[in-house]
Amino acid sequence: MEGDTTMTNLPTPIDPPQLHHSxxxxxxxxxxxxxxxxxxxxxxxxxxxxxxxGLEAQTEQALRNVLAVLAEAGTGxxxxxxxxxxxxxxxxxGEAYAATRTVWGDHRTAVTVLAVTPARPGALxxxxxxxxxxxx
Length: 136
Fold this sequence. Notes:
The protein is of the alpha/beta class. Helices cover 22% and strands 30% of the residues.
């Protein structure tokens, strides 16, 4: 097990030595005890609900929307233990990952990426998150 989970209020990455180590993603995350925030799926829509054009714009906006929900709950990306990223069929996950880096930065999380048929026509990406709320 990586790190000491007894004295931190941040999620702790778990990276078994027998598994490939990714600098971007953890294999597992331990959340500290306390309230947990579940961020529902966010599309790349602006404040008027308009869907932006293209994968990069939609991915960046979906992440900004996730960050807005985190901030409203009093937490941030450093408290996120898990992201689930839904991509429209045929989208290159590498391109989507590149778009996440500009907004998300280097916050490692456990991540699941799935190809799906979007519920909203024109949506190329939807992102949900699980985060802990920091202790006061």
